[in-house]
Amino acid sequence: MQMTATLTEALQEWESHQKEFQVIQENHQRYMQNLHEVSEMQSCISATIAHQRKSLKDFLQSLKTKGLAEEETKHVEEIKEHIQERQSILSQMEAFLPKKNGIYLCLVLGNVNVNLLSKRLKAAYKDEYEKFKLCVTVILLLLAFTCRFFVTYRFVDALMNFLLVWYYCTLTVRESILINNGSRIKGWWVAHHYISAFLSGVILTWPDGELYQMFRRQFLSFCLYQSFVQFLQYYYQSGCLYRLRALGERHNMDLTVEGFQSWMWRGLTFLLPFLFFGHFWQLYSSIYLLSMAPVPGCKEWQVSVCGLSFLVLFMGNFFTTIAVVRHKLKNTSLNRSKSR
């Protein structure tokens, strides 16, 4: 009797599993059908948006204000404004549609769709990117401090430089994915990471010797300072971005950067001295390395290449920051004159 009862319970449980499995199959089938429909809809909308863009472009070229009356000219200008708004709305729509990867992403990942299909997924990926930057920055800060004051082994230096190469290469991939998903990262701050990855790779291959030891302490001190400033920037920029997003003044996919951007003008100008000091440290490193290159005993090609790389980084960082500050000062003076 006990065996019969146990068998009955087992059969009932199996029947329950069967029903649950049937529900899973039906849900999965419906899911696959919805995926197919979504894929077809994405292709249809992408084609329609492309056609709309082409039509608007042709229509805009056909609009002429020459020889029109004042009222007609006004209507034409209004239409042009509406077309610009329409282009912006189309761009927002395209942020949620599959698109072809750029050359860099195609080389690294192939033609894989990296577009995230919801605002929640985009925000989660962006937050994960910010956490990744913060964690690696703290690790680099500790590693640079250890190498600068406690450890003098070349393989530990190589470990830190390898981490820098991996970090900057990873940033370039993640930033390319974020750009595909609507992040508006300025051109130089993306290029800055490519150059930094190259520079870190060159220093990684620099053999141990007298010239390397001459530059080592200065470079480690610079890495220590740069990591500290990046930590400061993340801490204050993330808070500022959160506040501006809440006010509707910034895009949800805007990111923290290693430099200075226009939205930081209110509240983060105190970071400028730290940034300019870092920029001029890059210039000093460049001059120091390039002055070492003509020395008769200098046989390492890394010396001149690193010197030129530091010079490019200084010029890009310094002039981009100057351009942002100049633009904001100009806008501020214009707004003041209008208010008067």
Task: Give the tags.
single chain, about 350 residues
List the helices and strands and how they pair.
Layout: H1 2-62, H2 70-94, H3 103-109, H4 119-149, H5 154-180, H6 187-205, H7 210-246, H8 272-292, H9 302-339
Helix pairs in contact: 1-2, 4-5, 4-7, 5-6, 6-9, 7-8, 8-9
Structure description:
The structure is a single chain. This protein has helices at residues 2-62, 70-94, 103-109, 119-149, 154-180, 187-205, 210-246, 272-292, 302-339. The protein is mainly α and 340 residues long.
Give the N-terminus to C-terminus distance in angstroms. Answer: 98 Å
Number of DSSP-assigned strands: 0
- Total count of helical runs of at least 4 residues: 9
Tell me the β content: under 5%
Class derived from helix and strand content: mainly alpha
Oligomeric state of the chains? Answer: single chain
The whole-angstrom Rg is 28 Å
Biggest pleated sheet: none
SSE string, helix = H, strand = E?
Answer: HHHHHHHHH
State the helical fraction.
over 70%
How would the global form be characterised?
flat
Low-confidence stretches: none
> Averaged pLDDT, please?
85
